[in-house]
Design brief:
It is a single chain. This protein is of the alpha+beta class. The protein has 2 domains: 1-36; 45-262, Lipoprotein localisation LolA/LolB/LppX (outer membrane lipoprotein receptor (LolB), chain A, Clam). Helices cover 23% and strands 37% of the residues. It has helices spanning 2-36, 45-60, 140-143, 149-156, and strands spanning 67-77, 82-92, 96-103, 106-113, 118-122, 130-131, 167-170, 180-183, 190-195, 201-207, 213-225, 228-237, 243-253. β1 and β2 (82-92) form a beta hairpin. The longest helix is centred in the first third of the chain and has 35 residues, at 2-36.
């Protein structure tokens, strides 16, 4: 008899608390989602569709270029110094790169990404050779701007380094050409994409979790190479005032590149 009473009490408590548990779990889930992904404002679904199309167009720019090589200039500016280098590179999607910075024809720094790891070599003794465990490390320590290797490779392939996104909308209450806001579910980072009246990308801003800019890319000039239009001059900067200006003076799309280019010799060259 007592066991029947206990079961009856359990059943009544279960009927009372089950909805509460469900609501509580849902509330926690909503907190997790809202804490990870920036909240999307109420926007016009038709305009959202247009924003997504603009973002997809930007992301598809030069996706047919799977490899490149060329030369150019890199100018790095911080509060302490200003350095200008010649640059020679060979890149292959998605994660292979060899880039050398030179001064007066003499190599200063070489970065070699094999697709599995990345090795940084100073030819002037600035630092000892360093190989990362990651295939896509942050380059802040080496080029003074917080961009990952994959972003740098995208730039050298003539692409726009857009992150994957699930949501796209126009920033409300902005000018006649508002930026497109891009977010990914379960992530608190976001990007803003600015295009001109011809739908050409003019600026890309990536934000940290605390909503402060991580880095800002301004596209200063485009050049035509064969059937492709390449962002040829661009400025990357962060909130600390560090800048890197990249100018591509020679660009060869889809050249054949030997495997040995992405391997280091025993001498480190």
């Amino acid at each position: 008899m007592r066991s029947l009473k206990k079961n009856s009490i359990k059943n009544r408590l279960g009927r009372i608390f089950s909805p509460l548990i469900f609501l509580g779990t849902g509330f926690i889930f909503l907190l997790v989602i809202s804490g990870c992904s920036p909240l999307k404002p109420q926007t016009d679904p038709t305009l959202d569709k247009k924003a997504r199309l603009l973002a997809n167009d930007a992301r598809s720019l030069n996706q047919e270029i799977l490899s490149s090589k060329g030369t150019g200039w890199v100018e790095i500016t911080t509060h302490r110094r200003n350095d200008k280098f010649n640059m020679a590179w060979a890149a292959q999607a998605p994660n292979r790169l060899r880039i050398t910075l030179l001064v007066s024809g003499h190599p200063v720094e070489t970065i070699v990404a094999t697709g599995e790891n990345v090795t940084f070599i100073s030819h002037t003794g600035e630092h000892s050779p360093h190989t990362t465990l990651s295939s896509d490390p942050d380059l802040e320590r080496f080029i003074q701007v917080p961009m990952r290797l994959s972003g740098m490779i995208a730039l050298l392939l003539g692409r726009i380094p857009l992150d994957a996104f699930d949501n796209a909308w126009f920033e409300p209450n902005k000018d006649t050409l508002p930026p497109v806001v891009l977010t990914q579910n379960l992530k608190s980072t976001r990007q803003q994409l600015y295009v001109n009246e011809h739908n050409q990308v003019q600026r890309l801003v990536s934000f940290k979790r605390d909503n402060t800019p991580l880095y800002d890319i301004t596209y200063l000039a485009y050049q035509t190479h064969g059937q492709s239009r390449i962002p040829a001059t661009l400025l990357i900067q962060d909130v600390a005032g560090r800048q890197i200006r990249i100018s591509l003076t020679r660009f060869i799309p889809n050249p054949p590149i030997k495997e040995s280019v992405f391997r280091l010799t025993e001498s480190g060259s």
